[in-house]
Amino acid sequence: MIGSSFVVRTAEDESTAAACVALWVAAVADRDGVPASDAVRARAREKFAAERVALVVADDGGTPVGFALVTAPGSGGTPSDAAYLSLLAVNPAAQGHGLGRRLLAAAVSAAAHAGHHRTELHALDDNTAALALYRSAGFAPLGEAFPHALSGRPTRVWSAVSAQVR
Fold first, then answer.
1. Please, are residues 119 and 107 in contact by the beta-carbon 8 Å criterion?
2. What pLDDT shows up at residue 76?
3. Strands 83-90 and 52-59: what pairing?
4. Residue 6: in which H helix or E strand, if any?
C-alpha cells in the first residue's frame, strides 16, 4: 500500500462518510494501542453530523485509506472564525508516504476555496508524529492545553493561515 498511488479527492456521499468513521475508529485504536471504542465511533459520527466545509479522501477508487474532515467555524467547541479540521486519519498501512501531508494540504485548500482563510485543529500534546506534520505545514499552537473530551489527555488548538500551508 503506497500512499503516492492514491487519488486525493473531495467526497459528498454518506457511504464514504461511514467508511471514514470506521477508518477513524481503527486509526485511533492503533495510535493509542487500545481496542476500538464505541465512544470514539459516536464522537466521530457527531463530527460528521456538523456543518461540513469539505471531506477530502484518499483512495484508489474503493474504500478510503485516508481522509480529512473540515467543518464550519465554531464546530471545534471554541468560538472561532476559522474552518475546523475536525478529523484527519491515514490507515496505518499507508502511513509514511506523504498521504497525511497531501490530505492536510487538500483540506486547508478546500477550506480556503470555501472562503475560510484560517484553519484550526485540535491535537494531542503527546501525538509527536501529528505535531511534526502540523508544524511542517505552517500550523502553530494557540493558548493553553485543555483535556481531551474522551481521554482527558492534554490537547491544544493549532492554527494556520491558508497561504502559509504548504
1. yes
2. 85
3. unpaired
4. none
Which pLDDT does position 158 carry in this prediction?
A: 96
Give the pairing type, strands 154-161 and 118-124. antiparallel
Q: Which grid coordinates are listed for 17?
A: 462518510
- CA 108 from chain centre, in angstroms, equals 10
Per-residue pLDDT of the chain (166 residues; tens, 9 = 90+): 555 678 888 888 888 999 999 999 999 999 999 999 999 999 999 999 999 999 999 987 788 999 999 999 999 887 788 999 999 999 988 888 899 999 999 999 999 999 999 999 999 999 999 999 999 999 999 999 999 988 999 999 999 997 645 4
Q: How far apart are CA 164 and CA 166, in angstroms?
A: 6
Cell numbers 485509506 correspond to what residue? 65
Strand order across the 66-71 sheet: 7-10, 52-59, 66-71, 83-90, 118-124, 154-161, 140-147
Q: Which of 66, 157, 70 is nearest to 107 (CA)?
A: 70
Sequence-distant (6+) residues with CB within 8 A of 22 are none
Single-letter code of the amino acid located at 131: L
| Cell numbers that stand for 111 in this block | 477550506
Residue by residue, DSSP assigns 31-59 as HHTS---HHHHHHHHHHHHSPEEEEEEEE
